[in-house]
Amino acid sequence: MKYSHKQMVDWQIQFFTMTAELLLALRVVLRFFNGNPDATFVHWVYNTTSVLLEPFRNVFTSFGVVGRGWVVDYVALFAMAVYAAAAFWLMAFVGKRK
User: What is the pTM of this model?
Assistant: First the structure.
């Protein structure tokens, strides 16, 4: 089965976005429940997602502590929204091209 150029670009955009969203959601959950950064898996998630968060580091200056030390990672939530919006915009742009 042959795929068109548009289908391949769509698939690449979707793959990147879903992977980034999944990793960032995992980071949000781990940060919220105080995942131990010394644990190998948690350390890997934090290191992997730090690249995705780099453009947004200074958007929010402080972390929000909800209660009992739970932390809401606003930067990661904002990054998830931006990556989803960018993917939506790119998919619409690719769809309009001939």
Answer: 0.85
Cα–Cα distance between 2 and 8 in angstroms, integer? 10
Looking at per-residue confidence, does 32 or 67 come out higher?
32
- Token digits of residue 13: 């955009």
| CB contact at 8 A, 71 and 34 | yes
Instruction: Summarize pLDDT for 45-54 with one digit per residue, the tens.
Output: 999 999 999 9
Distance between CA atoms of 90 and 98, rounded to whole angstroms?
14
- CA proximity to 12, closest of 52, 96, 4, 79: 4
Q: The tokens 């309009």 sit on which residue?
A: 96
Q: Which domain holds residue 78?
A: 5-96
Q: Which residue has the tokens 């992977």?
A: 19
Number of domains in the chain: 1
